[in-house]
């Protein structure tokens, strides 16, 4: 599967090598079942943001095969081909793409590709055995997956935030801090930080603390959440979702950037002479993405601040995603942060691949039928027809 930004090929998902669970992405071995997320982002050096955007690709690996696949990848590492060649003429002025093998990352200039793992923390029955892991097993497995991600040379590990069963991702900072203590290079991120139902004062404190513990290896992805009952659990009204997002993020930015804050808004008690502690590491707040499935207001917010915009290209048609990204790019340029093609965009596409389509459908269907992220609604056939999910042979995925 090709990942393309501004006409530049930045990654290639090849046919399986080294075993039935494995694929090869620019020299990197990963499980065959994966969500492929791609886009642009600013990259931090010594906790500072570079002036230019950089390419990002994130692999959301289906966790039912993840650990087995990565273990097998290590076992077959010597059989893997080297990093994929870079067509420098095709790159033009876009810079040099970082290529990856099973053990090392070779990097020269920005922009680069990044690969990683993103979990929503769902507790789902194993489709091969029918057994449902305990919450303790699922939490420990999340940490093991993050450690394995760094071991095989992946760049990013991200976790979502959910406060309802069957999820165990209620406290991303605790999870990421524990992982930070056991890793050295892995960039740690949230796949969603609920800016609507979480006090921005708490977000400012918690993620600045996480920055210090992780030596700056921290990103955030702001989101409103898609579970209606969560709002009243935290004293909020889902009908205020957009206003909460706008007001809370405006306060969060001030808390990170101003030593003393006087503030009054609609949704929380006023602040007078307040200082959030600890302060961001080296005075530089974590990089922020704004994630959205369908809300143009969020694309506008990301563009206004010059932050990253992550369009959830998982459950909606490509035409909808293109409209959202186009809006963000235009407004990013309008607000003077750079040209539209320099906007910091993240995208996604889901893939499960086998050598033939029959095997792919047969193996993926049990996971699809059991995973809460798919909502137990449309059939697999309807879902693949209406969304970016592709289940089939390599040629079907490419097409």
From TrEMBL:
<keyword id="KW-0503">Monooxygenase</keyword>
<dbReference type="InterPro" id="IPR036661">
    <property type="entry name" value="Luciferase-like_sf"/>
</dbReference>
<dbReference type="InterPro" id="IPR023934">
    <property type="entry name" value="LLM_FMN-dep_put"/>
</dbReference>
<feature type="domain" description="Luciferase-like">
    <location>
        <begin position="113"/>
        <end position="399"/>
    </location>
</feature>
<keyword id="KW-0560">Oxidoreductase</keyword>
<dbReference type="Pfam" id="PF00296">
    <property type="entry name" value="Bac_luciferase"/>
</dbReference>
<dbReference type="InterPro" id="IPR011251">
    <property type="entry name" value="Luciferase-like_dom"/>
</dbReference>
<dbReference type="GO" id="GO:0016705">
    <property type="term" value="F:oxidoreductase activity, acting on paired donors, with incorporation or reduction of molecular oxygen"/>
</dbReference>
<dbReference type="GO" id="GO:0005829">
    <property type="term" value="C:cytosol"/>
</dbReference>
<protein>
    <submittedName>
        <fullName>Coenzyme F420-dependent N5,N10-methylene tetrahydromethanopterin reductase</fullName>
    </submittedName>
</protein>
<dbReference type="GO" id="GO:0004497">
    <property type="term" value="F:monooxygenase activity"/>
</dbReference>
<dbReference type="InterPro" id="IPR050766">
    <property type="entry name" value="Bact_Lucif_Oxidored"/>
</dbReference>
């Amino acid at each position: 599967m090709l990942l393309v930004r501004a006409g530049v090929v930045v990654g290639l998902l090849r046919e399986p090598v080294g075993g039935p669970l494995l694929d090869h992405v620019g020299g990197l071995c990963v499980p065959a079942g994966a969500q492929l997320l791609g886009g642009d982002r600013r990259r931090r050096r010594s906790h500072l943001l570079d002036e230019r955007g950089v390419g990002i690709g994130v692999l959301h690996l289906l966790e039912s095969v993840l650990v087995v696949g990565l273990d097998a990848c290590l076992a077959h590492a010597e059989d893997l081909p080297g990093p994929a060649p870079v067509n420098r003429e095709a790159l033009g002025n876009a810079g040099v793409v970082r290529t990856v093998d099973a053990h090392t990352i070779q990097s020269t200039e920005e922009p680069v590709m990044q690969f990683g793992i993103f979990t929503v923390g769902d507790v789902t029955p194993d489709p091969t055995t029918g057994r449902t892991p305990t919450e303790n097993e699922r939490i420990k497995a999340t940490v093991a997956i993050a450690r394995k991600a760094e071991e095989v040379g992946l760049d990013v590990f991200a976790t979502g935030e959910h406060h309802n069963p069957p999820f165990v991702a209620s406290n991303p900072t605790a999870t990421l801090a524990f992982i930070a203590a056991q890793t050295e290079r892995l960039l740690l991120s949230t796949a969603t930080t609920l800016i609507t139902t979480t006090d921005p004062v708490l977000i400012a404190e918690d993620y600045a603390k996480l920055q210090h513990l992780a030596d700056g290896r921290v990103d955030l992805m702001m989101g409103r959440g898609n579970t209606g009952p969560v709002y009243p659990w935290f004293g909020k009204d889902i009908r205020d979702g957009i206003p909460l997002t706008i007001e809370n993020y405006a306060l969060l930015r001030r808390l990170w950037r101003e030593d003393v804050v006087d503030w009054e808004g609609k949704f929380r008690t006023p602040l007078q002479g307040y200082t959030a502690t600890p302060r961001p590491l080296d005075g530089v707040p974590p990089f922020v993405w704004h994630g959205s499935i369908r809300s143009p207001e969020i694309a506008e917010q990301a563009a206004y601040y010059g932050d990253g915009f992550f369009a959830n290209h998982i459950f909606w048609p490509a035409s909808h995603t293109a409209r959202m990204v186009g809006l963000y790019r235009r407004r990013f340029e309008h607000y003077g942060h750079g040209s539209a093609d320099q906007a910091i965009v993240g995208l996604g596409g889901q893939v499960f691949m086998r050598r033939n389509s029959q095997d792919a459908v047969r193996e993926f269907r049990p996971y699809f039928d059991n995973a809460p992220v798919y909502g137990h609604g449309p059939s697999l056939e309807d879902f693949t027809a209406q969304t970016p999910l592709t289940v089939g042979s390599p040629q079907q995925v490419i097409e």
